[in-house]
Amino acid sequence: MKKSFVLFLFSISALITVAQENSQWRGNARNGVYEETGLLKSWPPEGPQLLWNYDGLGEGHTSVAIANDKIYVTGMTDSTGYLYIFDLQGKLLHKKPYGPEWNTNYNGSRSTVHVNDGRLYLFSARGVLSCLDENTLNAVWSKNVLTDFDGNNLKFGMTESPLIVEDIIYATPGGEKNNVVALNKKTGDLIWSSPGTGKPSTYCSPQYIGNLEIPLVVNAIDSSLVAFHAQTGECLWVVDQKNPYGMSPNTPLADGDKLFTTTGGGIGSVLLRLTNGGRSVEKVWTHEMDSKMGGIVKIGDYVYGSGEKNRYWYCVDWNTGETKYKSNKVGIGNVIAADGMLYCYSDRGEMALVKATPAGFDLVSKFSITMGTEQHWAHPVIHKGVLYVRHGNTLMAYKIR
Question: Among 38, 266, 271, 318, which residue has the least CB neighbours within 10 Å?
Answer without folding.
Answer: 38
